[in-house]
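Technical note accompanying the year-one report. For the benefit of new consortium partners, we illustrate the data format agreed upon in the data management plan: each record pairs a sequence with a structure-token string. No post-processing was applied to the example shown here.
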Amino acid sequence: MTTPRYATDTKVSVSSSQAELRKLFGKYGITSFGFAEQPGGAMLAFQAGGYSHRIFMPVRGEDDGAFAYAGTRRRDAKGRRAAAAQEERARWRALVLMVKAKLEYAAILSQSVESAFIEYRILASGRTVQEEITQTGVTPALTWSNP
């Protein structure tokens, strides 16, 4: 039995999810942030505590084979577009959930925002901490003083 994924049936648009993130960032005093899209993914970038952070979220296009079928029925182009758009909406909802949870948890523990998102902190190499560990297998040395 597979566990249903979060927000798979959401009707909340990507722009509404982004608006919710803007509101959340404002609530927690994060004033520098932005969204970007590119083939294969979307990015949320922000500054907290003097550090830059980047969260990359893979987003599959309608040409991805995962959208070719609905059960055993082959989807037409319109159906593939709709399925890809639905998955993108669900991924943005999951991103909102993750960001909200990290911000709330940091507030409860009186942690800094930058410590809650440390895996997304951008290093001098241009990679995030998470990317550095994944690509090199080495945990980078981090400083906590503002750059």
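Partners are asked to follow this layout when depositing records. The first strand starts at residue 33 and ends at 38.
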